[in-house]
Design brief:
This protein is of the alpha+beta class and 141 residues long. Helices cover 24% and strands 35% of the residues. It has two helices and nine strands; from the N terminus they run H-E-E-E-E-E-E-H-E-E-E.
Amino acid sequence: MMRQMLGTAVIALVLAACAGTQGMGAAGGAQPLANTSWVLTRMNGAAPAAGVTAPTLEFATDRVSGNGGCNLFNGPFTQSGGTVDMGPLVSTRRACADPAGNAQETAYLRALDEATAAAVVDGMLELTTPAGTLRFRPATG
């Protein structure tokens, strides 16, 4: 009887530990971002500008790249647990046809450069910056 109760307690502890790790992975408790691709859905609570290419973000082992909406960008990237560091980022210098696109891209690239934390929550990437949060959905195909 005591052995059965001990076995049940161990199973309960294992299940509780697994339930508390949603969105977590191997890199010091945070899901590794290397070899993942994302599309911006919210920047500080606002949806991306309409009529402009949705900003993207692609992580390689030690590099990050993507599209800011008008221009391509890339730069170095490191992750240690839940902390992230990107930049300095470099980008092409093509002007957006829409002034809202230019403003969005400038704010997006600045936010990426200032990002300090990353977490994957319910399948969505959240980057934390001093000014707020960037939220991304996984890129498809």
